[in-house]
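re: that complex we talked abt at group meeting.

here r the seqs, copy pasted straight from the sheet so there may be weird spacing, ignore it
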Amino acid sequence: MATLPLPPGSTLGILGGGQLGRMLALAAARLGFDVAVLERDADSPAGRVAAHTIVGAYDDPAALEQLAAVAQVVTFEFENVPADSVLKLQSLGVEVAPGPEALAVAQDRIAEKQFLNASGAPTVAFSAADTAEEAVAATAAMGAPVLMKTRREGYDGKGQRWVEHAADAAAAFTELGGVPVILEAPADFVRELSIIAARGRDGATAVYPLAENHHEGGILRRSLAPAQVSEDLAFQAEKIAARILKGLNYVGVVGIELFELKDGTLLVNEIAPRVHNTGHWTQDGCAADQFEQHIRAVAGWPLAPTVPHARVEMLNLLGDEAEAWSKLAHEPDTRIHLYGKRDPKPGRKMGHVNKLKAL
Amino acid sequence: MATLPLPPGSTLGILGGGQLGRMLALAAARLGFDVAVLERDADSPAGRVAAHTIVGAYDDPAALEQLAAVAQVVTFEFENVPADSVLKLQSLGVEVAPGPEALAVAQDRIAEKQFLNASGAPTVAFSAADTAEEAVAATAAMGAPVLMKTRREGYDGKGQRWVEHAADAAAAFTELGGVPVILEAPADFVRELSIIAARGRDGATAVYPLAENHHEGGILRRSLAPAQVSEDLAFQAEKIAARILKGLNYVGVVGIELFELKDGTLLVNEIAPRVHNTGHWTQDGCAADQFEQHIRAVAGWPLAPTVPHARVEMLNLLGDEAEAWSKLAHEPDTRIHLYGKRDPKPGRKMGHVNKLKAL
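got the structure back, here u go
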């Protein structure tokens, strides 16, 4: 069994070798941990900065056993970790955080919305549909337009379709693969915000200031933080975060995407049980960033303060945009973060910059 | 030959696998570089966060060839890199920075003082002695007490002796191994300061604010930065740094240790052609720290700004002091940096903390 708080010199496991795993690994190293990354690719962004890479699928029992043999605490960079993998690691004496409740909720958009509403965190109206017929009937009942999303998987705008007329729901259902879906009423929002929140193993919580987010084609383009918000709005967001963290008995950092409505109220769009793209600004805006905060929480350390010392505009570098690194390097107030990905496919997150401004 | 500025995705080589190499490797990773560490130990603090570890001595031709096969630019974490190793890497088309001039000066305390005085950077009075007889005569000529140091090697107060009477100089010479020495007049200083300076491949320079340093038993205990100094003192220090950087045709970060005398003038104690323990405060006090600055310089990128956003008290964690990590983790304004060293020998640098204060 893991000794908690986890002492420096211990090995921390990360499922996933992408940019979030990489930045978690760098934060863990600063605190004196060794890192073991479990990842299909022998050469991954996170693996290249970790002491160990274990090559395998996230549900490969042999790979999970190898991970459990070196790592006392395991976390992950993405929400679609198979539940059986978590159980397997736990059965081998490994502490896994965030826990299975958070994963179950985050992996199923219906369970997520039901949990949120039950916790007093408001969302848009929604319906579930498992067949094309159910999708048509539910769209008619809710009234088009609705946003149809697969119940499971999907990210960066993938796995979703707008349905403009109830009659189109069957075709959209087929286009999404004929799998169970959620139908969401449109949110008439004026702004997209997010809050990065953390909960320690001792139940203490901390929230960073809100970020204002701008998406293009379903992909995050830029975040501004701390966002210009009223005290009331900040208070609403913190209350929502507190309910989610407690309701999930959460350990770690969570990203909570919010819609700000015209009337000044907030709806929760979705929750990501991990460090979050809209929290990258904390790397250069706060003394302890979301990556250190997550490592502290899962390792059973006390949480760090979340007070900002700069205002930050975070811009994602997608596809070939990272090729502008030399121009960006000449901007004095631009901090550059690149992920070491080999292949700049269009829309792929290759890095980000944090542009610093006075608070 | 290396393409400069070095594009992200390239591999940067580091000679040395200790804490300075580790923090350089973490900074290089943030900018999207892969890192290859050349180090005698297969398991080293830097190697554990690097994509490649090449196991070998710093003068092992086969290891240097392996390094040259993967790395386009090579730097180092310590000044005692053999000159032949630099020549070997250069002959294989590798860019090595800082360059051979800086190493030659930093490896020989007589050459260092001669260079400094020739550059208009004042030092204490000194003499060279290659034999016990010369040491006695030189001590008598300078007038005891003098500080006898080996001309080469030695760090953290190792390889030096105070000589209180000319007659004791022969014994001290023998105790230091009978190797060539330097005799230094005592500096009647009121304070130890240091300045971390950088020079890019384009000749541009940048200096961080001065740090005030406190040693115990020859080992740095704490630094306070930005130090409380007059404008005149800061100007003197910057002028000294500029002369040193230009005189060595320097590329990278240099640590310059200074004595502040009663009359408000500065003497240079020594220069370290690398990132420096008294610059660790920049990790939490500045937007871009000395490690990123060094990587930028050696990679041919433009230098980053050096404006502080916090005042920092940096404390080294020596030997078993790092075992207080749990207590330190509870201090909200204490940022923890641990090196992943396995064996906490007395006096060994295991980590440091940066305690943040308002500017």
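couple things i noticed - The first strand of chain B starts at residue 11 and ends at 15. Chain B touches chain A at residues 5, 7-9, 22, 25-26, 29-34, 48-51, 284, 287-288, 296, 301-302, 304-305, 309-310, 322, 325-326, 329-330, 332-333, 335-340, 342, 351, 356 (CB under 8 Å).
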